[in-house]
Amino acid sequence: MMTLTPTERDALLNHFEEMAHEAPFNLLTRRQLEDLAGIESTDAPIVSLYLDLSPEYRIKRAWATALKSLARETLRRIEDRETEQQVAAEIERIERALAQRIPALGRGVALFVSEPLGIWRQIALPVALPNRLEVGRRPFLRPLLRTLDEHDRFVVVLLDKRRARLFVSQIGYTQEVAGLFEETPSHHEQGGWSQMRFQRHHDAHVLWHAGAVAHATVLTMEQFGAHHLLVSGTPEILAEYREHLPPAFAERLDGTFNLPIEATVAEVAEAIEPLQHEVEAREEVATIERLRELAPAGRGVWGPEPTLQMLTEQRVMTLIVHQSYQIAGGECTNCGLLTTHTEEPCPACNSHIQAMDDIVELALERAVAQDATLEIVCSEPATALLENSAPIGALLRY
Question: Using alpha carbons only, what angle is made at residue 177 by residues 10 and 232, rounded to the nearest 5 degrees?
């Protein structure tokens, strides 16, 4: 099987290495969320702001109107006068900064701000984020966690018999990263053996081409950390291409479609969007079904209290939770135990339980800090499965 030559491989890897550090491929990373999840204040409030910056919110500074509405509602709920003044000052800082930076931002922005703590984190994304303002001891991360969970990184390949184009797509952003081109013999008019020889030569070239593109696909997925593969081409080309993919990567081929090789990046993004949603929905269902299979054997748990206990013991491998699920609970101020029971002292160390309105938010942060994967359930099929079990659960490491 023919693949890329060592020179071609090295050139492609060098090209990818340069691109991997560009902003579009670092819009939202696991490391960013881990860093944010590790921030906790013992005194000064941390303001977490999410703003939708879709075109309709940019007209006549509609985003500023939305921010003022969020600010009024948030400040009204704060009982402590000093905290209210601190939060109001932070919101004013945010509004001034956004007024200057809006043209450079995408369709959504998240900010985490606390001047006393020296914190100013801004994450702009090409997808809309829900308008929301939260104040607390920690950054409010659920919208970002959901965004990252819903937008795995994909490699997309467009194929024909002479060319291949490779793209990387994540979080509403699609970019072409490489193209392969090889001249093929033109169709020969002569019949008989000569025609067969040229046809066979052409078929051999298709095999070489498929092998080289499969090799380039593997390099692209490895370099950019992509979990999924989508491919466009004719049935003949797709069949040859599949044969040349290593088994581990063939398993990640999650969908095919058909676009002309000359399609624009925008056309590629539009064509793959429904496929990406289908992949995410299938993953949600598969994860829930796996938990339903393993829970009876003690390798998974359902329900808020058992799940919080496993997070406390750092045994969670995958945390599964419905996107809208909330439940009150608390955290032990001494040992960090998480629980839904806040009326009594900590059962582990007899210390005080700090109550909070939504313990799920802290559970998500704990999971990120413990390097557990997240499955935030949004699709209808997966939601229906959860309704027969519980809105939260976990697959366990041991």
Answer: 110
Alpha helices in 257-375 (DSSP H): 265-294, 304-312, 359-369
Residue of 345, 338, 334, 350 lying closest to 309 (CA atoms):
338
Query: Domains, the chain, ranges and CATH?
Result: 6-24+150-183+198-263 (3.30.420.60), 41-137 (3.30.960), 285-396 (3.30.1330.30)
Structure confidence at residue 178 (pLDDT): 87
Over pLDDT 70: what percentage of the chain? 90
For the residues 277-291, what does the mean pLDDT come to? 95
Q: How far is CA 44 from CA 10, 118, 224, 318, in A?
A: 50, 11, 38, 32
Q: Tell me how far apart the alpha carbons of residues 152 and 170 are, in angstroms, rounded to a whole number.
A: 6
Encoded tokens for 13: 């890897």
- Amino acid present at 391: P
Average pLDDT, the chain: 88
Strands annotated E in 7-98: 46-52
The model carries a pTM of 0.78
- 107-117 per-position pLDDT tens digit: 899 999 999 99
Q: Is 69:63 a contact under the CB 8 Å cutoff?
A: no
Beta-bridge partner residues of 228? 154
324 φ, ψ to 5°?
A: -105, 5
* Side-chain half-sphere CA neighbours of 347 within 13 A: 9
